[in-house]
Design brief:
Strand content: 15-25%
Helix content: 25-40%
Strand order of the largest sheet: 3-2-1-4-9-6-10
Order of helices and strands: HHEHEEHEEHEEEEHHEEHHEHHHEEEE
Shape: globular
Oligomer: single chain
Number of strands: 16
């Protein structure tokens, strides 16, 4: 009996010690986590994960109206996004907080009005494509009546599109707002012998084209856009019936700027069969699929929008060489005389890009470009480490 009593006392004592030690450990962990810069997952839903770092002002350019790139005319750009009420909090709010901030004006169109987001209510039904034509007519009419004289170009996109607005501005730099033209990814509807712009990656209209579409096509030729799906080819048909021309927007090497799928699909050339049937330019995939200055990607949904935002605006290649920038100038739309200024804006170690402008943070504001290393300096050794003359080996991983 006395032995049992002794065992019980020892067990109780050890239990109290273990409880006290556990409490101490918990308190220490709480203090460490509270003071640590490392954020611990809080169990929030997928569409609520912490995106504040991406949206801080100092993390990247926010408003593109303040971005004036060398050789790029400061055209006024309005973007309007066609969305649905159920998509506002899953994908459209991410567009609003990422690439749409870089347009001079952004308007969100939906079947119903939402004052808090906000969206313009088109007062149409909501369904699987049967109201597309109605939405297009009402949306373009709204844009025409409220903004025609305030902007030069008008970019229409879906709520699963990611756009690089600086590249769009670059492409539009040598375009004329008073030309009857529209821009995008060209498709061919062979049954109607019609070239049109795919609605997915978006379509850009000049001010002249918007005026022709609304004041003439919708009024004089309402049969060009009957009810039902296919607003992209129907809108293109309306535009062409009143004299607007679809423009080939590929770059100098025949690579696409407006991309119908996420970049992975284009790089791997894994396209659905319908794409081969519709694409005007033979559905090119692989490394030469896409321009150095891509403008937009389609089927980029929900948090994938943040992936594109991070790669375009929150990452950089440390060893960027001057010849790479020279290649951009040679293959892009910039003229050679703007090269020096572009190089000064290309991310040197003593410069930073903030709010769309370059700020000096020490050292020579215009550092000399690193010299190009001749091909003879490279001595590939397939079996061993890679070597550069005058440098140690670079080990393969």
């Amino acid at each position: 009996m006395q032995l049992n009593r002794c065992i019980r006392r020892r067990t109780a004592g050890k239990g109290k010690q273990l409880l006290v030690a556990t409490i101490i450990v918990v308190v220490v962990v709480i203090i460490i986590v509270k003071d640590s810069p490392i954020k611990v997952h809080t169990g929030r839903r997928e569409n609520e994960f912490d995106t504040q770092m991406l949206f801080r002002k100092e993390a990247g350019p926010a408003v593109a109206s303040s971005v004036r790139l060398p050789g790029v005319k400061p055209w006024r750009l309005l973007c309007w996004i066609l969305t649905k009420p159920e998509n506002l909090q899953t994908r459209t709010h991410l567009i609003k907080r990422t690439w749409a901030r870089r347009c001079d004006k952004t308007v969100f169109m939906s079947s119903t009005r939402n004052d808090s987001f906000p969206t313009i209510g088109l007062n149409t039904g909501e369904g699987n494509k049967q109201f597309q034509a109605q939405k297009a007519i009402k949306a373009w009419t709204y844009i025409h009546d409220h903004y025609l004289n305030d902007f030069d170009f008008f970019y229409k996109a879906d709520d699963d599109t990611y756009a690089v607005i600086e590249n769009l501005r670059l492409y539009l730099s040598d375009k004329d707002p008073e030309a009857a033209e529209f821009y995008g990814h060209r498709f061919r509807l062979r049954s109607k012998n019609l070239t049109f712009m795919s609605g997915g990656p978006g379509c850009v209209l000049t001010r002249k084209s918007v005026d022709l579409l609304v004041s003439r096509a919708f009024q004089e030729r309402p049969d060009c856009i009957p009810d039902g799906p296919g607003e992209d080819w129907k809108t293109s048909r309306c535009l062409q019936w009143v004299g607007a021309k679809p423009v080939d927007t590929r770059d100098e090497l025949g690579r696409e700027r407006f991309l119908v799928f996420p970049i992975k699909s284009h790089l791997t050339a894994k396209f659905p069969n319908w794409y081969f049937a519709f694409d005007t330019d033979h559905a090119v995939g692989g490394h030469n699929c896409c321009s150095y200055h891509p403008i937009s990607f389609h089927y980029v949904r929900n948090n994938d929008l943040l992936v594109y935002e991070w790669f375009f605006y929150h990452s950089a290649v440390y060893a960027l060489q001057k010849e790479t920038v020279e290649d951009f100038v040679r293959l892009g739309s910039l003229k050679e005389e703007n090269f020096t200024e572009l190089w000064q804006h290309s991310g040197q170690k003593n410069m930073r890009y903030s709010y769309g402008k370059v700020e000096q943070i020490g050292g020579d504001p215009f550092p000399p470009a690193p010299p190009a290393r001749p091909a003879a300096d490279f001595q590939p050794d397939i079996a061993g480490p890679i070597r550069l003359k005058g440098r140690g080996p670079i080990r393969r991983r």
